[in-house]
What does this fold into?
Amino acid sequence: MYQSFIGLEVHIHLLTKTKVFCNCRSAFGDEPNTNVCPVCMGYPGVLPSLNIEAMRMGCTVARALGCSIPEKTWFERKQYFYPDMPKNYQISQFASPLGQQGSVEIEGAANGRPFKKTVRIKECHLEEDAGKMIHTGTVSLLDYNRAGVSLLEIVTEPDMETGEEAEVFIQQLRRMVRYLGVCDGNMEEGSLRADANVSINFPGKGLGKKVEIKNLNSSRFVRLGLNYEIARQSEFMDAGKTVVQETRLWNENRDQTESMRKKENAHDYRYFPEPDLPIFAPDSAFLKTVDDSLVELPAARMKRFRDEYGLNPEQADLICEEMEEADYFEAAAAAAVSRGITKKDAASRIANFLLIDIKRMLHREGLSPSSLASFALTPQRLASLVVLLSQGRVSTKNARQAMEAAAAEGRDPADIIREKGWELITDPEAIAGAVTAVLAAEESIAAELRSIAADTGKEKRRRTLTAYLLGKVLAATGGRADTKIAADRIAEALGTRE
Ligand code: ADP
Ligand code: ZN
Ligand code: MG
It folds into this structure.
């Protein structure tokens, strides 16, 4: 077997309102070439100026990835010819990127085997995106709306070994940047793009010849592309051939990687410091804005949900997928706890409603969990339902119906339960009355039960008859008698209690 090495280069579009070095709107679904100016069109003689918001967002991600922010960070020109880059250089960072040497923990499973490992982050750097080429027939058109849009590149060390690990890395990073509010994480639309580098070698021999895979626009493709490439390279090595260093493209229609260009190590971008942008030395006020934007990250929140609320790992993972869902969960739990039920009881009931019933309702309306913040069944309303359930004052079936109605009508489910008369009868006197009436009406069955009360051989018969009587009591109360109290009463009256 060979040892494999995977390093990722992830680009994320930062959600800044304007571009990174000019004041054009950062929106690229618009009419082509409408969000452009001489700076992002690369006219000669214009001066870029740094969008501080892009720097703040970049540094926030860097900190979330455990990177250090250097005392001085600056920009370089990365030079190459490309029609979607009219300046013929890209302003990027090289010698002192804004985030350096961090690490993150990834956790998941591959082929049924769980894994947990640390992935080192080499750096995070801020740069500008290029324009977009649109090829139509024999002509190519250029749209510069995307040129100059803030892009943060996150580069890992080659610490991953399987497609599954890389997939989990991307998923976790995506969740993290969404929590931080710096990127929408949409891979299909290219807001988060990953290039995957992979090599294999004989164990202990260090890194092999690297192949870079591009065009991976979903985390699933990252996994498939890498695993395909590891298998392809292994076959090469088995046959005694050497792998060529090259760039390959993922072909999603054929589920394979295909050669795009060879001789990748010949890059010479001739980086040199961008003379039109000053060195950026973060001061304490800037660093405070960075600290202030660091919310509790998904990994920490998931762990806390397990420890504090007793959720299982799968529940914690699902609820923490979207920050709005995690917030909803915590608001509902707090409201239920403030009304006297225990945290764990509240949490397990709320988690079940959230992951099954509420997800289904949202799905039916074509809504995503991120719209929970404006959902008609507010966390407080869900809490009032959970409190009634926990106190045994409503059946699960009626609770579900009340929840549906509450969501549709924007009301408190407790009010609906009261109006519909769905509250369970827990008053022992009332239940005793119903039991007495049923026993009188079902005289022969009551008599049989009394006669076999102590007969250990008649256990089954006893159960059948008891269930029958219980059904009658429930029917007599319109299904509202508390089942446990009713069963106790029947046993007491007939002497069948164990
Ligand atoms: P380049 O200069 O070609 O861009 P870098 O050193 O910047 O290469 O690395 C780019 C990415 O490729 C990083 O994520 C890094 O971890 C990964 N990488 C570098 N060398 C290898 C290798 N031999 N095998 C696998 N991944 C590699
Ligand atoms: Zn511009
Ligand atoms: Mg590189």
Observations:
- The chain has three domains: 3-289, 296-420, 428-494.
- Residues 296-420 form one domain.
- The longest strand covers residues 113-128.
